[in-house]
Each structure stands twice: as structure tokens, then as C-alpha cells.
Amino acid sequence: MTRLRRRLPVRLRQNGKLLAACAAFLGVCWGVFGSGTVRPYAVSAPDTTAGAVTQDITGTKDLFDTSVAHQITLTFRDESYQDMLTAYVKDGEKEYVEADLTVDGTTIPSVGIRLKGNSTLAGLTWKGESAGRRPAGRPGGERPEGFRPPEGFQPPDGFQPPDGNQPPREGRPPAEGDEQTGDRGRRRGGMGGFGAALKAEEPETLPWLISFDEFVEGRRYQGHSQVAVRPVTGRAPTMLNEALAISTVGAAGEPTQSFAYSAFTVNGRSSAPRLVVEYLDEGYAENLGDGVLYKSLATGSFTYKGEDQTRYASDFKQVNKVGGTDLQPVINLIRWVDEASDEEFAAGLPARLEVESFARYVALQELMLNFDDMSGPGRNYYLWYDLGTRRFRVVTWDLNFAYSGDAFGGGRTGSHKLKERFLATPAFKKLYEEQYAALHRKLMAGGILSGLLDDIVRGYKLNAGAGAVDADAETLRALLRERAEATSAG
What we know:
Protein name: CotH kinase family protein
Number of strands: 16
Keywords: Kinase, Transferase
Number of domains: 1
Radius of gyration: 23 Å
Order of helices and strands: HHHEEHEEEEHEEEEHEEHEEHHHEEHHHH
Mean pLDDT: 82
Oligomer: single chain
Pfam families: CotH (PF08757)
InterPro entries: Spore_coat_CotH_CotH2/3/7 (IPR014867)
Number of helices: 14
Shape: globular
GO molecular function, one term: kinase activity
Strand order of the largest sheet: 2-3-4-8-10-12-11
Distance between the termini: 62 Å
Helix content: 25-40%
Largest sheet: 7 strands, mixed, barrel
Structural class: alpha+beta
């Protein structure tokens, strides 16, 4: 019985009595009202137990101190890992495996680990067979459950899948000495590629989400309930592009994530240093202030579906204050964006959204060539709702496709109604252009990005298992130079 209980998510276990009471109440309703329609809403009294911290492990080093070496070791039962892979291949479910974790000499028993990512896992194989669940339209793959690429989505010019088989852009023949692509910018593409070639037999290379409280309620590590471990891909195992993109967002003054490189071992198998990234969990939300953090899901859309909150379960996930607040602020925003006239949108958006911050967000994605932003296939963003100002802020997340593609092109993406209407409104388009020019002067032309990259490379080299990184760094520096040239008129 204990083992069965531990298979249940912590949040479900924490609210077992409440759920039982709700089930009993619905049973009474059924008896009284018969087969009449009952519309469920995700509204409840504040839950003072959910998210309560009972243990915060200090460790020996700051996990995200990039000036020191780090070591992360995972150990788990192979049978549990096989069960996890079976569930993922069969149903696309990313189940947690119980593991023992050692971080910089501090052992933490019974953490939860699961596969992390969507498009990143599209190239996963197991026993020589495809195990990934590819986005629709990708060669030889299937769509993940509920996945719908944004309308009109196309990868940007120069984007290269890991196998290098993307043809050059139509009408531009390959340049001399350039076998895979047709222009100088496209030679730089492909870091952190779509559907990276990953093998389940090599768990030390896979993308992982580590949860400190999945099997031990209320436990955190240095304030974090979860951290993400980015994959080792064949094309760019260092993931310098993502580390630089995270640093770029922070240098622009927008909310970003902490990161560091670490030596990484799984069941005795070691890999090159892994990029470990702060996850946007309850602790992250607490540091943002008094508000609610909502994660956009890859299966979702920004579409008004009525007031029934259960209809948005595949669109957004609430991160913090669960039980005390709900999805209603997000639904209100979606409905207003959908229904407001152009005049109402221009006049009313600043009361609902931090428009200057959003202009920076959109400008940053373009400068960094990140096609997988809020309007990309992964719908990678969070919404932060400040309970004091009653305004939203868009928070950047998952930048493994940034700084990839044609430096002289742009980040072609799909659709997102908020972003589209924002750029179609003259006053907001001007604000975007001002932010774009300011960011270019500060980051691109000012040399800040080059300095950030130098720091990242130094941090990578500190760790055991660090291989050749200078070639990747030079590739990225060349892209930065070309991107600065391409955007100089912006």
C-alpha cells in the first residue's frame, strides 16, 4: 500500500481528504439532480498545506555558482527505468522514477526524476527503435498526445535537424565548401537541434527533470523543488547557445533562470558536463513576488473556450498558490484579447499587461533567433500575474533553440494572438522597435554578449569530463558577429 501511495503525485496525496470530500459531494449532487449537467470549476478555499516547505537542504556549494566545479550523480533501479520508458513509448506519459541523488557531495535519497521536453525528445530511440513522439509534420514520426503546431508554423531559415538532412533554402544554392547549407548564416545553425539524437540506453545524455519533493513532501534543495538537466546532443553537446540565451535575458533586465554546468553520472555512466537550469517552480514564483505563475503547455493554445476552467487543462498549468487562486485571471485575459476591438486593445492592454516588458520579450526572441518562443511549437513561456498590480508579465523559458539558424534571417514562428495583436497596434509596435534598438545597442553592439560567453566557457571548463568547447564557442561568436551586423539597422 505504501508503494502504491508513493506512485501518486504529491499534490494528489496532499489533498486526498479534500478530493474525497468533493467526490462525496458530487455523489450527493447526482442523487439530487439526476443526470442534469454539473459544470466543475477549479475554485476552492486556500490550501495551507500545499507547497509547505518542511526541509530545505543547504548542500556544500551554491548549485548555480558558475565559478566552481560541480558533480551530480544519480542512481536508480534499472527495472524502474524500463517501466518508465515503456510508459513513455506506449502513452507518452513521463512518469517519475525514484532515485538517489548526490549533489556536490550531499546525498539526497528518494528524489523523483522524469524525462523532460517535447521536441527535444523527438529523436529518442530505445533498443534501436524510435521512442520519441515527434511533432506533427516531422519526418518519420508521430505527434505527441494533444500536440497541435501553431497555425502557419515553419522552422526558421537555416535551422538544421541533428541529422543534417535539411535542404538549403529554395533559390539559394550551397556555397562552396558548405556541404549542408546554402549560406554563411545557416552554417551556424543547429545548436540544440529539433529532435536531437538521444538513446535511452545512455541515460547520462538524456534531458531530466529532478524533483526533490516528488517522494518526500515539502523538501527543497537550496530553495528549489525542481531543477532541469538539459540534454547532451551530438551536434552541440555543450549547449552554450542556451546558456548564453539565458544570460542574455538576464542582461536585458527580464526575469530569467540561474544555471551552471556540472559533471554528471547516471548509474556509473558519465557524460560531458551537463547544463543544469533553475526550474520555474513554487520557489521561483515566491522570488518574483506576490503573484501567481502559470506555465503554458505544449499541448495548449491561447484560445477562449468559455468560463469552465476544466477546459483549459491542456493549455495552462498553475505553479503556485494552488487552492488559493485559480485560472480565472488567465481566462479573463484570453477572453479580453479575443473580444476587444482594436481601439479597446490599444487603450486597455497596459492595465492588463506590462507592455514595456512584453516589448522587450518579443525583441529579445527576435534578436536571439529563438523561433520556439510563445508562438513556437513548444509554446515555451510562463505568465506571471502580479496580485498587487493585477497585470501579467511574460516570462521566458526553454531557450535551447536560441542562437540557431540564419544570422541574417529572423525567427519565423507560428501564431499567438496576444503577440500578433501587440505588434499590429501602432503604439505597441513603436515600443517594440524602441526596445529592439536599445537591446541591440546594449547587448549586440556593446560587446556584452561576447563577455557573457567568455564567462560561460570558463565555467564549463571547470568541470570533470569537459571536452573540446572552444570550437563550439567560436561558432557561436561568429553567429553573434553576423547577427550584430544583420541587426545593426534595427
